[in-house]
Design a protein that fits this description.
It is a single chain. The chain has one domain. The longest helix is centred in the N-terminal third of the chain and has 32 residues. Helix 3 packs parallel to helix 5, helix 4 packs parallel to helix 6 and helix 7 packs antiparallel against helix 8. The protein is mainly alpha-helical. The protein is 69% helix and 0% strand. The chain is globular.
Length: 242
């Protein structure tokens, strides 16, 4: 509010959205490049308080899925990943998940947090809780965390960036756990192939994240929702015919 006899205007707190347009962060405020941001946070750990706080947020976000994965692994392997039921279950998840995306994209609140690397620790933990859903076969990890972030008041682009950051420890941890459980069944060559596949996946994701952010910022998750519905129906028809 402007004071009498002064041109000074109070500004809203940094990082909080103050517009009715959900796409403000993509059009009215510049964003740092994801590659540059990642480099800054990684190499700034020894000296930067913000970098260490960001790393702590990732750890907090990772904990829920680690706990749930360890607790439910046996159930997932014996029931949800049973060859007799896995494919119909996945087809159903694709269809239901697509519908949920289309509905929740419409009712998501206006964003309050605009930077994926500056989220409050509580918000990072909440997004991590959303990631638990990706343990279910057919549920997209990125879809669960991005959509969950939107419903929690995080800007779509910021939620996508945080999902990218969170993918590194999540996928690394899952790969290590799987290698540990199946170490006796894998040859040295197969283990090396898994390591190479993980590294290549990370490198590719690292360089395509900018384009993906532009697509998600402009179109949201709706195209992905329609894709899931179409893929689920196609899989269901295939299973019915065969």
């Amino acid at each position: 509010m402007a004071r009498a006899g002064s041109s000074r205007v109070e500004r809203p707190p940094t990082g909080i959205a103050t517009t009715d347009r959900r796409s403000r962060s993509a059009t009215a405020e510049p964003h740092r490049e994801p590659v540059a941001c990642t480099t800054e946070r990684t190499f700034g750990l020894p000296t930067s308080v913000e970098a260490r706080r960001f790393a702590l947020g990732l750890i907090l976000a990772l904990l829920p899925s680690v706990a749930a994965g360890l607790a439910l692994k046996k159930l997932l392997d014996e029931v949800l990943l049973n060859p007799a039921t896995a494919m119909p279950f996945i087809a159903g998840c694709w269809i239901v998940g697509g519908i949920i995306i289309l509905v929740f994209e419409r009712i998501a609140p206006k964003p309050r947090w605009l930077e994926g690397d500056k989220l409050p620790l509580s918000k990072a933990f909440q997004i991590g809780c959303c990631q638990i859903l990706s343990i279910i076969p057919g549920v997209s990890r990125s879809g669960a965390t991005i959509l969950g972030g939107e419903l929690l008041g995080v800007d779509r682009r910021a939620a996508t960036m945080f999902t990218f950051y969170l993918a590194v420890p999540t996928m690394l941890g899952a790969s290590i756990l799987e290698l540990h459980h199946k170490a006796g069944e894998l040859s040295r060559g197969q283990g090396l192939n898994i390591v190479i596949g993980f590294v290549v996946s990370f490198v590719v994701a690292f360089f395509v994240i900018r384009g993906f952010l532009q697509i998600v910022t402009k179109y949201g998750l709706k195209p992905f929702g329609w894709y899931r519905i179409a893929a689920g129906l196609a899989l269901a028809v295939y299973l019915f015919i065969h």
